[in-house]
From TrEMBL:
Keywords of the record: Membrane, Mitochondrion, Mitochondrion inner membrane, Transmembrane, Transmembrane helix
Superkingdom to which the source organism belongs: Eukaryota
Cellular compartments annotated: Mitochondrion inner membrane
Keyword NADP carried by entry: no
One Pfam family hit: Cox20
GO cellular component: mitochondrial inner membrane
Family membership: Belongs to the COX20 family.
Keyword Lipid metabolism among UniProt keywords: no
One of the GO biological process terms: mitochondrial respiratory chain complex IV assembly
Protein name: Cytochrome c oxidase assembly protein COX20, mitochondrial
Length: 112
């Protein structure tokens, strides 16, 4: 049991596997960085500049995908929380007189 806990990687006291979007953003960043560095090296044979390009593309891809993924994750979490709240209200009203009341929609369009 203690060996399992010592194998868990942590970053600033947090378990890496519990951080949303961590794995995917680093995998995309590493793969695009390596690809960009190799392509530039194959075209120009300049080792130093190709390594700079690889690191720059890695950083840019990782940060871009991290931002996109976290934004999407946050909106999904907010949607799930809203749906849970609506379902909780629906369950509380189920079988009561409030549920049987007709619901009228208010529209802003005026009919001539």
């Amino acid at each position: 049991m203690e060996n399992d806990r010592s194998k868990i990687k942590s970053l600033w006291g947090r378990n890496i596997s519990e951080i949303p979007c961590f794995r995917n953003s680093y995998l995309y960043g590493i793969s695009t960085g390596i690809a960009a560095g190799l392509i530039y090296f194959m075209c120009t044979s300049k080792i130093r500049i190709s390594s700079h390009i690889a690191v720059t593309v890695f950083a840019a891809t990782t940060l871009s995908y991290w931002t996109y993924c976290r934004h999407k994750w946050e909106t999904d979490e907010n949607t799930v929380a809203l749906m849970k709240e609506l379902l909780k209200d629906r369950i509380a009203k189920e079988g009561t007189q409030i549920e049987k009341m007709p619901v009228y929609e208010v529209s802003n369009s005026q009919k001539p």
